[in-house]
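Hey everyone, long-time lurker, first post.

I ran two proteins through the pipeline my lab uses and got sequence/structure pairs for each. Pasting them in order. The first:
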Amino acid sequence: MIAGSPSGGRFTGPLAWPLNAVGLLMAVCRLSQALRVLTLRASLAGHAMQQLNTQQLAQWCPAPEQVFLGFGFEWQPHHSPRLYKLTKLDCRQGLAPPWALRWRAPGLHLQLAKTHRN
């Protein structure tokens, strides 16, 4: 409150509604950006590693010539220091908070708990 102000500290001029509308629009934009960041951070949490034996793989892909494992890449000397730096990072700081994981991907926190125990 502004002392001695007749409006009690509220802006009541002709620009009040446009300024409120701009503020609301900015809040909606920031909310959508925050949800996008939370979604991306939740996707970084990944899923538990799945292992298939050869019988299960044959069941999923009856035609072996259709299996594509990717192109890969050539390991070069500059990749080693990058990998070393990545191993020193705490990956948990980039993850979304647990409540956001439960909200965006139900059941994912259970998979994460299983992988962290092993």
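...and the second, right after it:
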Amino acid sequence: MTNVPVVSYARISADIRRDEHGVQDQHRLNRETAERHGWTVVHEYTDNDKSAAKADVVRDDFEAMLRVLRAGELPDGTAVQGVVIVAEDRLARRPGDYERFVEAITYQDGRVFADARGTKDLYSEDTESMGLFGAVISKMEVRKMQRRMRRSHRTRAEQGLPVGGTRPFGWKPDRLTLDPEEAPLVRQAVLDLIAGRSFHSITNQWRREGAKTSLGNEWTTPSLKLNVQNPRICGWQEINGELVRDPAGNPVVGQWEPIVTPEQWMAVKNIFDARRGHYIHRDGRIGHILTPDFREPNYLLTGFLRCGRAKPDGSLCNTSLRVTHSKDCSSTSTSVQARPSAAAAELDGAATCRSLYLGSGTCQAGAGQTRRVHYSRRVAGSGRVREREDPPGGAARAVDGGQHHERAVLLDGSGA
């Protein structure tokens, strides 16, 4: 077969240099492979710096490729009849992902598939079985490697040696010697917290002074909390939330220079323990006790938006919107295109309105595919619940929820 339109897929688990050289090399090899077989690469899918072995990692371009393979065409209408990769471990390291890929590429007849070694007939049960077996072996090897790494980290921690990872803020690259500029910031932050200063205030001061994290990013309140909560600043180590202790039960003292004393770190830990289960104001004051089922939302309107689709009996569906991490949340019928950083939410059980982005954007709903957004919010500190259902055809509404001001995006046939 010649002049077959195919897509190229490339993935690398760790892009240390942050220059995408690994995935670009893979795409170059894929184009050479396609040219040898007389095929044409019409699109490239890239998952850079993303593991295929971890279940909690969403590979955006892999998921987008599966949707394109099932549809048989790109969003712009360009036909797609196959996939080219360098090796199958670039494609999948989990049996479930490999099975989903095979189902997508064989959804229509006449599809082609090749890696750097040659073509493979995925319509053949034998070829599919060998690929699935390879994914199982790959998964076992990854787990074996993870166990070795965990044992190595535990051994080094018990010896008081620093483990791997990014350079900890406050120390030089050797991870043993204090940084003369960063360590005083951490020490003063601990003292300020013990004296009653808020995390928000300290974070703002660090940002004004131009302090950066060890990765060169701006400081945020969550990143500051992680820094001062780490027992490393007092010379101890923690693994899976537990202090590393010697046979006598005492915390193992590391070989690096500490920034604060164990007593000072314990005082900060007590602050976190006292705050747990309470509402915390921006100035650090501890507020009312939260309900046992309270969950701090990670995304805008999480837990508030409900499906407004009417059931046959006239009642509302009222299904909670689920959050996904896919940047392309378009479906065959409806989508809301928003900023790449916006959170995506998937509408459970809806036949024509399956997903949306929470954020600014344009709805591309088909004619007659009206969807109402039903939302409810408990006003902080008052115990009152405000509920409202937008009428069909309405525009985006602003919701005043006590201490927050949020927007509910209404999907309708006019593209509100």
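Reply from user beta_strand_b:
Welcome! Quick read of the second one: Confidence is low (pLDDT under 50) at residues 326-416. The CA atoms of residues 11 and 90 lie 6 Å apart.
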